[in-house]
Amino acid sequence: MSKSFPSDSFMDASVADAGHELERLIQIMAQLRDPETGCAWDVLQTSATVAPYAIEEAYEVADAIEREAWDETADELGDLLLQVVFQSRIAEEKQRFDFAEVTRRIADKMVRRHPHVFGEAKDIGDDKAALTAQWEQNKEQERQKRSEHGALAGIPLALPALLRASKLASRAARVGFDWPDVGGVVAKVHEELAEVEAEIASGDKAALQDEVGDLLFSVASLARRLDLDPEACLRQANGKFTRRFEAVESLLALKGLTPAECDVEKLDAVWNEVKKQEKS
């Protein structure tokens, strides 16, 4: 069966509609930032005070996608886009850059990073390894232009620690700093866990924090070697724990109990009952 693609007229109308709505959003933000007639809260914001909201909105987008809540996803993507427009408006007021510059730069970057589509490297085709190598080569050239040197350059400090650990390990692996197979990573996890156990016995809190950090880093490296996103793994585990704990609360409530009124053995028994019900 052949694929069905939107017609050119449909695409043109969609782009025009998107352009109209984007222009409307930019104008709304300009009005909100007007010192005389705008919103007092929006006027007071700076690049620094707004920045945390972009991270929050990005996670809400990821959450909606993970739940396949597509109507929510459209809404959350709008919230994320607002952060780009907001930051661009603040920058424009400071004569740093404007929204057009933001879109121009990402458009140029996408063309530059896809020479197999827009340039001379069309012979790459669907070779995933070649495409990845080409992408990373282009990124490395961009880092060098920004005077960022070294294998670990350019990995943002603001990334969630688990995700940054995975990226650090991945970047180091590209220059050969890696185990030859996944078994080496598994052994490293066991080694770090043993060191954590040793520090628990010693009672040295600072050393224990250091060793737990090493353990988490090695687990992030294991996820990377298994081609898994450690953040996604942990989000899934968080969701599973939440679901099971709420089920424990519900089962106890049927007996007129709360978790606080039960000992560890009772809670563990109900927890195992919940797990058994899930599997069946």
Task: Give a verbal description of the structure.
The protein has 280 residues and is an all-alpha fold. It has twelve helices and no strands. The mean pLDDT is 89.
Helix content: over 70%
Distance between the termini: 39 Å
Order of helices and strands: HHHHHHHHHHHH
Shape: globular
Number of helices: 12
Report the sheet-strand fraction: under 5%
Number of strands: 0
| Secondary-structure class | mainly alpha
Q: Summarize the biggest pleated sheet.
A: none
Radius of gyration equals 25 Å
Output mean pLDDT: 89
Low-confidence stretches: none
Topology:
Elements: H1 8-32, H2 40-44, H3 47-66, H4 70-93, H5 99-113, H6 115-118, H7 128-145, H8 161-173, H9 182-202, H10 205-225, H11 230-254, H12 264-279
Summarize the structure.
This protein is mainly α and 280 residues long. 74% of the residues lie in helices and 0% in strands.
Essential attributes:
280 residues; mainly alpha; 12 helices; 0% strand
